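User: Sequence in, structure out. Go.
Assistant: Echoing your sequence, followed by the structure tokens.
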Amino acid sequence: MKTLTDKIFGSCRFHFDDIVAIRRDIHMYPETEFNVHRTADIVANQLKKLELQVKTGIGKTGVVGDLEVSGATKRIALRADMDALPMQELRNSPYKSRIDGKAHMCGHDAHTAMLIGAAKVISQLKFELKTNVRFIFQPSEEKFPGGAPAMIKDGVLDGVDQIYGLHVWPLLESGQFAICPGPAFGQPDVFEIEIRGKGGHAAFPHLATDPIVVGSQFVSMLQSITSRNVDGLESVVISVTQFHGGTADNVIPQTVKLSGTVRTLKKEVQVKVRQRIEEMLVGITSAHGATYNFSYQEGYPVTYNHERCVTEVLAVAETLVDAKEIFYPYSPILGGEDFGYYSQKIPA
């Protein structure tokens, strides 16, 4: 007699080619932010074939499919994100992006296809289940404020006891699992700074207040926050990713603009870093006779993996692969994920 695991693997093998084809189709026609209409149509049509209760237009362009199990009183949710990135795909493959300036380079095409596949497999095993299952396909994970808040506002978590998601990861081989207890993804904040000096001719810098010099010193000073103001055992990254100023090689500009990101796992660390950034700005600009504007936008909340959910996922992984293919506990990652909004509401 086949075990449930045997049936799952058999169903996966049966649907494998179809899921590969769906993933490659989505990859060729990437869509960004909430504008995932084609992808959402593919999802909805696939779910309707499984006789799920399908709702579209959730969180603007999200899709939800409910599998109702007779006698079940609990419900778990499985979530995938559908959006691509606004970037060019450079590699050549038969399923390369055909949309200029858009590409699935973060794996959301795989996430979407994988969850469609999971819906197919789980639906076939409906009569062996004891829990209702909600399949959530979400738009706009990549663009702040994210698609999760809109999905939550439209009731996607109503009646859900636990929610699970996963992310493909290029540092792991196919068939391996990485499970991170507690904080798993960081809070990705962004900042923008304008430093205002006094412009002038490059031959007479003593008559100007050079904002490039001020900005350069500020960028160097920033890294002392991580090494001297934050406990060395805490996780924090400060990266300046843009520095713009000047239009001519013989003119000291009036202003420069900088922007970047702060990544943290703990609120108290985030608060301290934000405070120190502005304190440094005050000090460096006043020392040079410059002024500044500073804006700071808090990003997605930390994605937190709850103990009970981690325990259950680990137990399932151990039934599927050898222990050597499971990386637990896996280290947190300072990338951001709007799945954090779900984990603030229910066990995840």
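User: And one key feature?
Assistant: The mean pLDDT is 97.
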